[in-house]
């Protein structure tokens, strides 16, 4: 179903994430502390003076809290690098939320009983660790208020004068302050290939093999030629030994699955378990997110919108749409009809979310607010685009509470269908 926009301002178009520093994410802690980006730019890594606590931990304080700033790195991979440097399990490292890969991001992490000398002496081109202090508590997923975004939108062509562009942005901001559909952003669905929810659908339908093969072989325009060819060859031949030689080394997750299948060609569940647990859960969650988006789109397309109507389930007075699972209870009335039709269109039932062949992928279900209200929307700059000569760029900022996506705001502003990176 086509994307539905709720603001009537003229879309500004454009592209995001052309440069790494175009997408900056600063975590906001529960107490309101902003974890500021201070080290990375597109062209350099600044060296800041650092103070380290004593290696003798205060009684009862076994968790070292640090600020992690990263450049163009996936959160899971960053944690893996730190664990490898420490010579320890990644389970000892806690963090509050996943951050975008393509960008500069800053957040707090915790490490249980780390080797402090290794931390002091470690150097990385793509990571910086600082502001260390001993604490009692581990940082867990969800231990944050949200995130502050600073984003540059480039290649703004046909937007009229600078004043017309400014007017379009500020008009859209004014309308967004009343709330916009709380769609899950494109990164929830797997970046360039947008396959995560499709893999999740196969798992929910009970076909682990189809899901694993889709994860390994689905291609997308713009993917690097060598890996696209490796995926195509594997799809055609199902020769895992050949694939283990053809998949580039940096595709570590695919290679881990393929190496297992070289030894056990029918053990698709065991193969997928070679991925980090946190990653495997993402696929059924991505499918839930896809269905959530479809419910919101149908509500908008059929005219009931996102304000409460008879039969709705509410959370803090706001419509809560389903993240379907095997224990989900559907809404009543027209909202419930829409929820049922979304499931019927997909050919799935609630019971299917109890994945018998791979129990860890099962999900009970929940609900999520259907309306997102961005905070502190601000136009920071309109300038000539140094990346696209003759074009303009706009730099904007805003804050979102945890679990919400910057691309949701960007799509409404840009009036962009699908991937805003294009």
From TrEMBL:
**Protein origin, superkingdom:** Archaea
TRUD domain span = 179-373
Catalytic activity reported: uridine(13) in tRNA = pseudouridine(13) in tRNA
One GO BP annotation of this record: tRNA pseudouridine synthesis
**Any Pfam family hit:** TruD
Show the InterPro entries listed in the entry: PsdUridine_synth_cat_dom_sf, PsdUridine_synth_TruD, PsdUridine_synth_TruD_CS, PsdUridine_synth_TruD_insert, TruD_catalytic
Q: Supply the enzyme class, top level.
A: isomerase
Q: Could you tell me the EC number(s) of this protein?
A: 5.4.99.27
Extract the CDD domains matched here: PseudoU_synth_ScPUS7 (cd02576)
Which residues of this protein are catalytic?
100
Any GO molecular function: RNA binding
The UniProt keyword set, sorted, is: Isomerase, tRNA processing
The answer to whether the entry has keyword tRNA-binding is: no
Which Gene3D superfamilies has this protein been placed in?
TruD, catalytic domain
Q: Which family does it belong to?
A: Belongs to the pseudouridine synthase TruD family.
State what this protein does. Answer: Could be responsible for synthesis of pseudouridine from uracil-13 in transfer RNAs.
- Identify this protein by name: Probable tRNA pseudouridine synthase D
């Amino acid at each position: 179903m086509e994307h539905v926009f709720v603001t009537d301002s003229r879309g500004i178009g454009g592209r995001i994430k052309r440069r790494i520093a175009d997408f900056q994410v600063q975590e906001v802690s529960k107490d309101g502390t902003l974890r500021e980006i201070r080290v990375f730019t597109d062209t350099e890594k600044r060296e800041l003076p650092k103070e380290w606590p004593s290696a003798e931990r205060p009684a009862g304080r076994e968790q070292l809290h640090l600020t992690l700033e990263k450049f163009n790195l996936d959160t899971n991979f960053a944690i893996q690098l730190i664990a490898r440097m420490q010579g320890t399990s990644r389970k000892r490292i806690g963090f509050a939320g996943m951050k975008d890969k393509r960008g500069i991001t800053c957040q707090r992490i915790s490490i249980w009983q780390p080797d402090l000398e290794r931390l002091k002496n470690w150097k990385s081109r793509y990571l910086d660790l600082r502001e260390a202090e001993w604490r009692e508590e581990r940082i867990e997923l969800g231990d944050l208020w949200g995130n502050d975004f600073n984003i540059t939108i480039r290649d703004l062509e046909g937007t009229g004068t600078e004043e017309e562009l400014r007017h379009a942005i500020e008009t859209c901001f004014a309308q967004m302050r009343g709330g916009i559909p709380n769609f899950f952003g494109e990164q929830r669905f797997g970046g360039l290939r947008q396959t995560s929810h499709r893999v999740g659908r196969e798992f929910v339908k009970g076909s682990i093999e189809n899901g694993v093969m889709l994860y390994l072989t689905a291609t997308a325009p713009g993917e690097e030629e060598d890996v696209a060819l490796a995926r195509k060859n594997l799809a055609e031949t199902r020769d895992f030994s050949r694939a283990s030689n053809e998949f580039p080394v940096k595709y570590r997750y695919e290679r881990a699955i393929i190496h297992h299948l070289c030894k056990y060609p029918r053990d698709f569940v065991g193969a997928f378990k070679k991925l980090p647990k946190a990653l495997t859960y993402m696929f059924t969650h991505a499918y839930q997110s896809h269905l959530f988006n479809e419910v919101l789109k149908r509500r908008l397309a059929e005219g009931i919108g996102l304000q409460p109507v008879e039969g709705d389930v509410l959370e803090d007075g706001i419509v809560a749409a389903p993240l379907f699972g095997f224990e989900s209870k559907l809404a009543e009335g027209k909202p419930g009809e829409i929820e049922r039709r979304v499931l019927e269109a997909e050919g799935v039932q609630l019971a299917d979310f109890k994945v018998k062949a791979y129990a860890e992928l099962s999900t009970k279900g929940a609900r999520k607010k259907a309306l997102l209200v961005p905070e502190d929307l601000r136009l920071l700059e309109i300038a000539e685009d140094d990346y696209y000569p003759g074009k303009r760029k706009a730099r904007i900022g805003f804050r979102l509470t945890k679990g919400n996506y910057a691309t949701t705001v960007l799509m409404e502003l840009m009036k962009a269908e699908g991937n805003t990176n294009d």
